[in-house]
Design goal:
41% of the residues lie in helices and 22% in strands. The chain is an alpha+beta fold and 476 residues long. The protein has a 9-stranded mixed beta sheet. A 3-stranded antiparallel beta sheet has the order 5-4-15, with no helix packed on it. The protein has a two-stranded antiparallel sheet with strand order 3-16. β8 and β9 form a beta hairpin. α13 packs across α16. It is elongated and about 90 Å long. Adenosine-5'-diphosphate binds next to β1, β10 and β11.
Length: 476
């Protein structure tokens, strides 16, 4: 029998707020343990939660960005369970009436466009953290994270391969970053994915028994974990066995999944409406206001870059990976009036510079106007391509105007025939053998001779003119 994988993903995203969901404590990664706590997030008797409107606004924005219907009224519920990182003994979440439902996320696969339906988007609070390596032979609790605002995003079981699951997660993260609802930092746990997976005979319509893999916090992790779980389930099914519904823990270092607990049924949590909070109300106007304030999303932006600027899908895709890159590119293009040149420079020398320095384009030390002016000076022949790359480095280090730097540092390209001819003559004299080979038609040696002239000119000669002169010189 051949099996088909069926995958649904649940993603927890930390909202980019300054304060917790139900109290005024700071949300801050990496502080000393247990400094951002108060009676509310510690669950002390008598402490009452109060909603942080900033978190609600970000959750509404998230729902809208994912194409969900966002409701004017949703309901807080208690999800009861015991765990040492949950001092209240319950998590405040949303259950039967979530903030939003019925969205969709599109993504690219090797074989074309695909999409996943989003079943629901709801708000909830995060738990604290157990630290296993802080104190020898003990596990200790850090409650700084307790009460941090989250949205949980739940997909329908629409995915069919680990590669698609990864691609979906990439597209989701990109969208969340575009709308600035989360920093989506997977290492710091701002975006965590649980993968639900079952197998069924190819062609079957009903779903098989699923397992849920928790603790996946990287793109490659989700792909690897799913491959391993598909192999495990397939082996059991091929052997005539049945899959046990359970929760598995992903161990990224060992590249393995292991059983965490047999899965609780829904009833084990004893969900009931949260008595300390009224239903969450968001006005229709504020939802529509939020919708109108959504920025252009990644895919429409990519399509526009192709249509308006005539870029290839590949170029448009690279340039829309982040909103910051797309904004930068658009700013350069607008000033320069040449999208193709702008894209070459942003994707080429600028990206190389940023990678080399480990700087994000959002904090690029060279402003779009400066890069645009520099490219303009290459275009009109004032400076050579190779010198311009040096100027770019100087701009990054020292700032300033490209034209001034080119002038002051002697980067102005030499295009004067007399000077260029002198260099060409010198090079031919120094390399008679190569010159003779070029004369006999070995055109590939031309590059070497042009290179020699460039060297002699310390990079300032106009290579195109040098090439012309060289060929003219050697022509019979
Ligand atoms: P649970 O109650 O275990 O959390 P849900 O029905 O709420 O299960 O679904 C949780 C996630 O699991 C969703 O993303 C859903 O698409 C996915 N899912 C549900 N059933 C299956 C299945 N049989 N195989 C794969 N994924 C599934
Ligand atoms: Mg679940």
């Amino acid at each position: 029998m051949s099996w088909e994988a069926v995958i649904g993903i649940e993603v927890h995203v930390q909202l980019r707020t300054a304060r917790k969901l139900f109290c005024g404590d700071a949300v801050e990664f990496g502080s000393a343990p247990n400094v951002h706590v108060c009676p509310v997030c510690l669950g002390l008797p008598g402490a009452l939660p109060a909603i942080n409107p900033e978190a609600v606004a970000l959750a509404v924005r998230t729902g809208l960005a994912l194409g969900c219907t966002v409701y004017e009224e949703s309901v807080w519920s208690r999800k009861n369970y015991f765990y040492p990182d949950l001092p209240k003994g319950y998590q405040i979440t949303q259950y039967d009436r979530p903030l939003g439902t019925d969205g969709v996320v599109a993504f690219d696969t090797a074989t074309g466009d695909a999409s996943v339906r989003i079943r629901r988007v709801h708000m909830e609070e995060d738990a604290g953290k157990l630290l296993h390596d802080r104190v020898p032979h003990a596990t200790v609790v850090d409650l700084n994270r307790a009460g941090t605002p989250l949205v949980e995003i739940v997909t329908e079981p629409d995915l069919r391969s680990p590669e698609d699951a990864r691609a979906f997660l990439g597209a989701l993260k990109q969208t969340l970053e575009y709308v600035s609802v989360s920093d989506c930092n997977m290492e710091e746990g701002s975006l965590r994915a649980d993968a639900n997976i079952s197998m069924r005979p190819v062609g079957a319509k009903t779903l098989g028994v699923k397992t849920e893999i928790k603790n996946v916090n990287s793109f490659s992790g989700i792909e690897r974990a799913l491959h391993i779980e598909i192999a495990r389930q397939t082996e059991i099914l091929d052997g005539g066995g049945v899959i046990e519904q359970q929760t598995l823990l992903w161990d990224d270092h060992r590249n393995e999944v292991r059983p965490m607990r047999s899965k609780e049924g829904r009833h084990d949590y004893r969900y009931f409406p949260e008595p300390d909070l009224p239903p969450l109300r968001v006005t229709r106007e504020s939802i529509e206001q939020a919708r109108s304030e959504l920025p252009e999303l990644p895919r429409p932006r990519r399509a526009r870059f192709q249509a308006v600027f005539g870029l290839t899908l590949y170029d448009a895709d690279v340039l829309t990976q982040s909103a910051a890159t797309a904004d930068y590119f658009e700013a350069v293009t607008e000033r320069l009036g040449d999208a193709k040149l702008a894209s070459n420079w942003v994707m080429g020398p600028l990206r190389a510079l940023l990678n080399h320095r480990g700087v994000d384009i959002a904090s690029c030390p060279v402003l779009p106007a400066a890069l645009s002016d520099l490219i303009g000076l290459v275009r009109d022949g004032t400076v050579s391509d190779s010198s311009a790359k040096k100027v770019l480095g100087i701009l990054a280090d020292e700032g300033g105007e490209p034209a001034d730097i080119i002038e002051a540092r002697g980067f102005v390209q030499v295009r004067d025939d007399a000077q260029l001819s002198r260099w060409v003559e010198e090079v031919i004299e120094a390399h008679p053998e190569e010159a003779e080979r070029l004369r006999r038609g070995e055109t590939q040696i031309g590059g070497f001779l042009v290179g020699q002239v460039m060297r002699r000119s310390r990079g300032q000669a106009d290579p195109k003119k040098v090439n012309e002169l060289l060929l003219g010189w050697l022509a019979p």
